[in-house]
């Protein structure tokens, strides 16, 4: 699992850590049952505070994406199985909002999606 | 002329590897020659029934076959590992442990018969003495092999087409993964079962069962592994092996790539001439092209991401170094 943080970013480091885990789940790189890297390892490698990493993991636990147990590795929960689809729905909603904002017709929007899909 | 990373110290490691089989023949030969007049008429060594005990000259000759077998096997492996000093050191260590302990075993057999007229039971201190000799010889083999020559340093950026994660100057990144190799667990249990069978068979030679047991335990302890890639390099840790770890510095990495699959047979913390690392089964593998010539392989689902991060780190380090050189 790849975790990248930018200390100069306005986004809190804990949120950046959580975002990286979400992205790995959305890409399918992390699946239910996978262990998250130990918080101590991540903190040491990134040169950030251990509690910052734990805060990021706790956010994921609150979302139901990660299970945290004392003395054991944090693991991705079964809820992650739906995550890639959830990301797709969120992307579609963003796209729909952009379509409305730009005043593009539904047919033209659907054609744009088809064109993008066929080019992949 | 191509670079030969194993040239420094190779002769020394070859001598250390091939000397113990010679010792296996020389020790019985010299002792029988030296104490010939004070030994019983026949070779009443452990396991030989008095009525079937061979003559001393025949007993000495019997050591030739295992010595040639051991020596030949070590020589074949050494030839295969001609370019890899690390593997040569491992061979020297194993050869010293087995050869010296077997020579000590036969030495004890002969010395306990000095002044005797018939079979003499093996003294209780024999096995502890053999184990101590094996451990001491292994340590000596490792130490006498000398320091390994440092691998050549890579300075070029990853080749075009290699996956690269673009890392802005302030970004910090870590990639972490862990694997559990069921295949390695099974191999380990098979070795341990063989050791149990050997021990249950009542063989008086403990070296065979010990070899199987050590190989089994080593396999099992290497089943769970952790990989970490960060600014310090690529680190592999064995949490079941007391956290034993090995770090590959970026200076020793030419570039990284993701392979769809790779064979994991024979790999491990030392590996073989095909490379080292941990391949836990079919599926994507992170492959590091190392400057020593052997690749490092590691099974991970997102091998492409891991390879891109390694190449991103390499690009950043080498571009920085290039800029510093131009100044």
TrEMBL record, chain A:
One Pfam family, short name: GntR
Highest taxon in the source lineage: Bacteria
Acetylation listed as a keyword: no
Xref: CDD domains: WHTH_GntR
One function term, GO molecular function aspect: DNA binding
Name of protein: GntR family transcriptional regulator
Domain HTH gntR-type: 11-79
Family annotation (SMART domains): HTH_GNTR (SM00345)
Keyword line: DNA-binding, Transcription, Transcription regulation
Keyword Glycosyltransferase attributed: no
PROSITE patterns in the cross-refs: HTH_GNTR
Automatic annotation (TrEMBL), chain B:
Domain of life: Bacteria
Keyword line: Membrane, Transmembrane, Transmembrane helix
Transmembrane regions listed in the UniProt entry: 14-36, 56-78, 90-111
Entry protein name: Uncharacterized protein
Upper taxonomic lineage: Bacteria, Bacillati, Actinomycetota, Actinomycetes, Streptosporangiales
């Amino acid at each position: 699992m790849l975790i990248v943080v930018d200390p100069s970013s306005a986004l809190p480091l804990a949120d950046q850590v959580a975002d990286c885990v979400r992205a790995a789940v959305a890409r399918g790189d992390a699946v239910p049952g996978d262990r998250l890297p130990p918080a101590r390892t991540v903190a040491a490698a990134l040169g950030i505070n251990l509690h910052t990493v734990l805060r990021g993991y706790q956010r994921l636990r609150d979302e139901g994406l990660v299970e945290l147990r004392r003395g054991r590795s944090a693991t991705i929960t079964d809820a992650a199985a739906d995550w890639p689809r959830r990301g797709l729905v969120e992307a579609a909603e963003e796209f729909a909002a952009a379509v409305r904002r730009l005043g593009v017709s539904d047919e033209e929007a659907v054609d744009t999606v088809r064109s993008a899909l066929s080019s992949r | 002329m191509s670079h030969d990373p194993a040239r420094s110290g190779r002769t020394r490691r070859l001598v250390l590897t091939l000397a113990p089989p010679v010792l296996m023949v020389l020790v019985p030969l010299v002792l029988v020659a030296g104490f010939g007049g004070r030994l019983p008429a026949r070779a009443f060594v452990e396991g030989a029934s008095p009525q079937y005990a061979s003559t001393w000259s025949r007993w000495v000759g019997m050591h030739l076959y295992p010595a040639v077998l051991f020596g030949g096997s070590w020589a074949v492996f050494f030839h295969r590992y001609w370019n890899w000093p690390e593997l040569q050191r491992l061979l020297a260590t194993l050869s010293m442990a087995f050869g010296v302990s077997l020579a000590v075993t036969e030495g004890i057999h002969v010395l306990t018969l000095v002044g005797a007229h018939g079979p003499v039971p093996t003294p209780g201190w024999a096995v502890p003495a053999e184990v101590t000799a094996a451990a001491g010889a292994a340590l000596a083999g490792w130490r006498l092999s000398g320091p390994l020559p440092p691998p050549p340093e890579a300075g070029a950026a990853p080749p075009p087409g290699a996956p690269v994660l673009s890392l802005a100057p302030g970004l910090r990144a870590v990639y972490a993964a862990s694997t559990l190799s069921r295949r390695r667990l099974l191999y380990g249990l098979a070795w341990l079962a063989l050791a149990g069978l050997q021990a249950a068979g009542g063989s008086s030679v403990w070296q065979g069962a010990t070899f199987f047991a050590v190989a089994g335990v080593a396999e099992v302890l290497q089943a769970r592994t952790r990989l970490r890639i960060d600014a310090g390099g690529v680190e592999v840790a064995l949490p079941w092996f007391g956290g034993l770890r090995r770090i590959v510095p970026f200076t020793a990495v030419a570039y990284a790539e993701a392979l769809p699959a790779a064979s994991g047979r024979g790999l491990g913390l030392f590996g073989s001439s095909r490379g080292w690392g941990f391949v836990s089964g079919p599926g994507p593998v992170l492959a590091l092209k190392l400057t020593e010539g052997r690749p490092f392989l590691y099974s991970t689902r997102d091998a492409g991401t891991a390879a891109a991060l390694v190449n991103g780190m390499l690009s950043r380090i080498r571009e920085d170094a290039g800029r510093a050189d131009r100044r």
